Amino acid sequence: MTGIRQARLDDAAAIGFIEVETWQATYAGLLDDHTLIAMSTARKARQWAAEMRHGATGLWVWEDDQLGLLGFGHCGAQRVPSLTYDGEISMLYVLPDAQGQGIGRNLLQGMFTDLKDRGMGSVLVWVLEANPSRFFYARLGGKLVLRRTIPFGATQVDALGYGWEIL
Q1: 4, 123, 128, 148: most buried by Cβ count inside 10 Å?
Q2: For residue 128, what is the DSSP state?
Q3: Taking Cα atoms as reference points, which of 51, 58, 54, 55 lies closest to residue 117?
């Protein structure tokens, strides 16, 4: 099957690889190289496996019949109670060579459906300002509504919040 599906425990290694590969490719030269180089696929895979063993929900993957997993996303309830958005897309990563093929859009739409099915009517996604793909969210109707600074390694980086008031 080529398409979106819920993640399974045996996807943890591929999800860890996608996360590290995407960060290293996207932020090389833009963020602290030492922190990027220190990212570990094995460590990320163990973290994702532990999350899934503990009942993590809202974890979706894009699987290609021939190529395997090419992207993943994670969504759930808003983690910052003071924000007016019900849901949050906490991660959306597509392997660099697979970008521009609609995988990210399909994953995002699938997560919107998941959040709606769980009773959430609005959503916010945070993206690093240094991420050249941040405009993807605006093209899909997200409005730039918030800015904040978050820690990354030994530094602070700027993040932008794109929101959808109605899913």
Answers
A1: 123
A2: E
A3: 58
Q: Say what angle helices 41-53 and 12-27 make with each other, to 10 degrees.
A: 130
Q: How far apart are CA 73 and CA 93, in angstroms?
A: 6
Handedness of CA 129, 130, 136, 139 (dihedral sign): positive
Distances (CA, A) of 36 to 16, 25, 26, 27, 122: 14, 9, 10, 8, 32
Widest pairwise Cα distance in the chain:
44
Q: Which amino acid is at 36?
A: L
Kindly report, residue by residue over 46-71, the tens digit of the pLDDT.
999 999 999 889 999 999 999 999 99
> DSSP secondary structure string, 64-123?
ETTTEEEEEEEEEE-S-TTSS-SEEEEEEEE-GGGTTSSHHHHHHHHHHHHHHHTT---E
* Predicted local confidence at residue 32, as pLDDT: 84
Spell out the domain ranges in the chain: 3-164
Distance, CA of 43 to CA of 20 (rounded, Å): 10
- State the Cα–Cα distance between residues 76 and 56, nearest whole angstrom: 9
| pTM to 2 decimal places | 0.94
